[in-house]
């Protein structure tokens, strides 16, 4: 769709008056568009989507698969093997019926298959990531048909009227219709980090630069503060961002830590196998005193090269990660960046917000404090039913103008809506404010009714930095004296005195109180004495130490409407009204989650904007704060240098009254101490800390788009317990990956050593062909490995310390286990091989003289079945485990054994795979030797148990 399809004059929205713009787009600021108009415009302009800039194309993704060093080695093997076959064919050495180039074809098929698998996985991973992004993608609030509704960003059309507030990522370009204190960060577009003040009323010259078009907003930029109503002018590729979309990065495709570890593994394996090949060739040449057996040595080398590459591993890893991501979503943790699945298991410190994450975010006001009296408020939830009680006696609020004035402030200085939904009282908006509406309604004071008496004309919005907000209302229609209809009217008249406007302010009590010079006790404001001030602060502490969230209220009569940005001037010399304390109960499941964290060596830390005493009460209740732990306030933190903070950061478990910028310093200090930090956040200013954290976590329900965009993981239920659950899943995923790597590579080492030993101990011929090795690595190792990937968590998975994210894949005994088991595996098979060779070459042997090779092949396969069963646990013996707790392993073992026997006993398969018939006795001997592998792994566990060590 070209820009021409927009109405004439639409190229320069900034030089149009709002009404002109609305007319051009045939829209209405109050009604928005009708569903029919939206439908037509969607047809006409298409969805509001950016076309992804071309990253790698399909061919490049496919080609990239073949740059893997292990696959390159396999390709070389295929060609050398093809050359040898060609020589045999020319020399007429092929046996009748033998398929030439079988190994070459099989290896190349595996290489291509691996390439295609890798390709499918990568494209699917990209698609899955895109789908995850979609899930977390923002909804936009728009006015359609006169009602406020939320629609997906891609459904926006030119002419829509969208509503913006702090934290929103703007989804389309638009002309501002109304704005209040609107500040937008446009760094995505202009590179300018500083937020820009935006205004609706201006009409700018046509030639104004993009960065100066302050009556427009642009897609991809972020609302830092304030509110606005915006007419959508351009969507999709016609937005300013769309125009430069081709310059944007495609989906991030940095290798994940696991991919890096796999590359490291590939290099070690390939180097190791080349060294072994060299040893075998040199050893073979020396033994034969010449190059007579060079062809056999070459065949041995080729087999070894095939044996060392774990062909099935990439597929198993991808499946494991995909399953891990799915399991996490089922537990309400949405992974936005894939590496998080692997690295979650490494988290050592979880820094969590309090409100909503550790607590339920369902506020109920419990007490009100005015004029030195603490009044208890009864009632539950958001239902506006309950009493005001003084010394356990119900009091008539109508006759207490000080309380009435406070309740008016609660209802007016408020952006939430209290309403009945499906018969239940519920709130739209911030629960803190919802509780205040409920409180006021308990005294019959309703926001809707006050709106006509006190229409809002301006505001200084709330932010976590300011910790307060103010609204300015014009005072209308208040009747006093005998004409007054309600008890509220005389109170309002009393507050406004002879002025035209009233400002109501609420926020953190210390901040509000410090800006007050007078106090309202029900009559006229009187100067606030030091004694009164101390009393209020003492009451504030009293309420906070009970775990209540406390807000302070004040007001000020004004003669004019303050201009935008003049908060510092106007929010001074206020008249104090009182305190309101509300309970936000801890989430019941969090206590157990905190306990689980501690056992798992993870330290939970509370970071909150709330009062230190409130924070401490809740943290103590939840077990986050322990004896000796420190509370640090934002002010103290502000005074500390980075070094001082770093020295203290391990001792502090509660940060109170902090601003979002402090969060960044806390993460950095923890990281400098070597901690692996998960950090939650919801506000627009939390984004830097979320980005800096090793695992940045955004809130799915209360989080802003900006915080979600910066995060690695989104909590769909905003719950701390979900972080712990996801961490556990991360550990399970990583443990299972390590488990099947041990399983697969132990076997590869065993195979390589067995093949290498055949010529060295003077046996004639190569025991295993490349085709048989591929079969083992893909099928007989691959299936059980896949089954091990879904192994349920071991009971102690959250009882051991976190993994270091920087550790090598061979750390914590994995490397030594692989080598040890590889050697044991080789000793078992080489012993069998020696016995079998002598047996089939003994005088009077009736059967196939090459049957020893198939005995080696069969033993290698069946021994791995025992290994798969035993390796399910590092510490528990197999008889101590529930054999049915992972049916996949049982199934894989049965299926694989049957398949292996088919290769020996079904003639066409025997022919194709070049195996030999085994009689019952030979088969029994293979099974007997194979069982030794199982026995060994079990004995290792017993040994560790008696030695008092635990394998990890
Ligand atoms: P957390 O960071 O754990 O979510 P919080 O919700 O208390 O804690 P903020 O939302 O940043 O953090 O609030 C900080 C302080 O600002 C609160 O303790 C309260 O005193 C004040 N406050 C919160 N909400 C409002 C509001 N809607 N209007 C005025 N002041 C508020």
UniProtKB/TrEMBL annotation:
The keyword Nucleotide-binding applies. It is found in: Cell membrane. GO terms for molecular function: ATP binding; ATP hydrolysis activity. Its main location: membrane. Coiled coil: none annotated. InterPro entries: ATPase_P-typ_cation-transptr_C, ATPase_P-typ_cation-transptr_N, ATPase_P-typ_cyto_dom_N, ATPase_P-typ_P_site, ATPase_P-typ_TM_dom_sf, ATPase_P-typ_transduc_dom_A_sf, ATPase_P-type_domA, Cation_transp_ATPase_P-type. The chain crosses the membrane at residues 66-84, 104-120, 268-288, 300-323, 817-837, 883-906, 918-939. It is a multi-pass membrane protein. Residues 12-86 form the Cation-transporting P-type ATPase N-terminal domain. Keywords: ATP-binding, Cell membrane, Membrane, Nucleotide-binding, Translocase, Transmembrane, Transmembrane helix. PROSITE patterns: ATPASE_E1_E2. It comes from the Bacteria. One of its GO terms (cellular component) is plasma membrane. Belongs to the cation transport ATPase (P-type) (TC 3.A.3) family. Type IIA subfamily. This is Cation-translocating P-type ATPase.
